[in-house]
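Morning. Coffee machine broken again, so started the prediction first thing and wrote up yesterday's gels while waiting. Chain of 77 residues, entered below exactly as on the submission form.
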Amino acid sequence: MGTSTVVSTNRAITGTDDPARLANARQGMFEYRCDGLANGTYTVQLDFAELTNTKPNKRIFDVMIEGVEVIPNLDIN
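Came back before lunch.
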């Protein structure tokens, strides 16, 4: 949710078997939603490659699942 733009990089992304998937990112979004899922147990996997704000404390956010904060103050740098 929110207005976003796509940024890309040609720099090498290490630590992944699929660097092309992480070479593009959305900026400006404030929420991702997965509405309409069937009841059940799900595994949530978060994969990050910071393309622009590469210094610590530049993009800190909380991760909430079903309204519960599961990771506070995540700084991916």
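The chain has a mean pLDDT of 83. Going to sketch it on the whiteboard this afternoon.
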